[in-house]
Specification:
The chain is mainly alpha-helical. Helices cover 72% and strands 5% of the residues. Strand 1 and strand 2 form a beta hairpin. Helix 1 packs across helix 10 and helix 7 packs across helix 9.
Length: 304
């Protein structure tokens, strides 16, 4: 059941794209991440041009984040003051990333840069997650209590001036820290087509010291606005947003998330973190192989 993607400039099997969105949706429901860090590599593996994969994945994440924000808002799981600071930083990072994306696209280096960023970030995060999950599982099997980490922000965050009170997060820190964090996430969202949740959530917990009760909801709140801004940037600068591709992915991810959420309730969190870490490392390894493996055709010709 083939369907032509006008921006990508190729025909794809509609059921395969919906299935890819469904797979990412299942993982999103299981692990509480946006799934953009898996959507973009899977699209690239399928043959979608990296620039179109990045832009369209950001569009899909925008739609998928709306329901998550509404659900967390009803449970008072969103720190709106912290969220708006993150959004402000994310908007700045998104527009800066848009110009960087366009410059890399003109130089013909965008494919290589996206691949290297994925290998470095996913590889390091996957290793850290695997180590943490493995240590927790060893402690459980030996009968030792798992030590809870003290909720504290980094020393560099404490040294920043102009402190504000973020009551729902239980913090009294400078807004410059979440502003810079949001800008970094916005930049990566444009360059990599990720929502940034797999980077933002650990940084909010271990870097800012936020309460885990509001971390996921606040992260989704920021992701919603930043990916919307990213979609606008890509639509006006690189013109790489394929709305047909984004809609197909959204159909699959919304459906798959329901099954993933139900499955997550039957599995221990430590096993879920270990499975996610292995998936992240597999994707990073596949991206690294693509960067170093000699292709069958060294040169390709594309009509503009």
């Amino acid at each position: 059941m083939d369907l032509y993607l006008p921006i990508a400039g190729l025909s794809v099997n509609m059921l395969v794209i919906v299935g890819l969105g469904g797979l990412v949706g299942v993982l999103s429901g299981m692990f509480g991440v946006g799934g953009g860090f898996l959507t973009t590599p899977l699209l690239i593996f399928y043959g979608i041009p990296p620039s179109v994969a990045v832009a369209s994945a950001a569009t899909q994440i925008t739609g998928a984040s709306v329901s998550g924000v509404l659900a967390h808002t009803q449970r008072q799981g969103v720190d709106f003051r912290m969220g708006w600071v993150l959004v402000a930083g994310g908007a700045v990072g998104s527009f800066a990333g848009g110009f960087a994306f366009r410059a890399l696209q003109k130089s013909g280096q965008i494919d290589t840069v996206v691949g290297i960023l994925y290998v470095l970030l996913l590889g390091s995060i996957g290793i850290l997650m695997a180590r943490e999950a493995a240590s927790s599982l060893r402690a459980i099997r030996s009968g030792e209590p798992v030590k809870a980490r003290a909720r504290r922000h980094l020393a560099i965050v404490a040294a920043l001036p102009f402190r504000w009170r973020f009551y729902r997060s239980g913090l009294y820190i400078s807004p410059l820290a979440p502003l810079l964090l949001g800008a970094s996430t916005g930049l990566l969202t444009v360059l990599m087509g990720v929502g940034g949740g797999f980077l933002l959530v650990p940084a909010m917990i271990y870097g800012l010291g936020m309460s885990t009760r509001v971390v996921v909801g606040t992260s989704l709140f920021q992701i919603l606005f930043v990916t919307a801004a990213t979609t606008l940037v890509h639509a006006t600068t690189s013109r790489a947003v394929d709305i047909v591709l984004a809609c197909l992915l959204l159909i699959g991810s919304v459906t798959g998330a329901q099954f993933g959420a139900r499955f997550a309730q039957t599995v221990r969190p430590e096993y879920l973190r270990l499975i996610l870490a292995l998936i992240v490392l597999l994707v990073a390894g596949r991206m690294a192989l693509g960067l170093g493996w000699r292709p069958d055709e060294i040169y390709t010709v594309q009509a503009l």
